[in-house]
Amino acid sequence: MRKRKPKARIISGDPRYNDVLVSKFVNHMMWEGKKSTAFTIFYDALDKIKGKSEESELEV
């Protein structure tokens, strides 16, 4: 049995948007500790969505 409560871990925001939710998503998407690859995949996907949304005037 644990003697005391563990300290809460603070997750820092991602480098581009400084958002904690993006960091959490990338941490779950990460495969074998490849965080830079996961960030690249995530940012490329957002860039593609942003490129398509400019044509149809949607907000990302």
Span between termini: 46 Å
Mean pLDDT: 88
Uncertain segments = none
SSE order: HH
Tell me what portion of residues adopts beta-strand conformation: under 5%
Task: Report Rg.
Answer: 16 Å
Largest sheet, in brief, is:
none
Coarse morphology: elongated
Please give the number of β-strands: 0
Question: Structural class of the helices, strands and pairings?
Answer: mainly alpha
Blueprint (SSEs and pairs):
Blueprint: H1 20-29, H2 35-56
Task: Describe this entry's structure for a reader.
The chain has 60 residues and is mostly helical. It has a domain at 20-54. Helices cover 53% and strands 0% of the residues. The radius of gyration is 16 Å and the shape is elongated. The mean pLDDT is 88.
Describe the structure concisely for a colleague:
With 60 residues, this protein is mainly α. 53% of the residues lie in helices and 0% in strands.
Q: Main attributes?
A:
60 residues; 53% helix
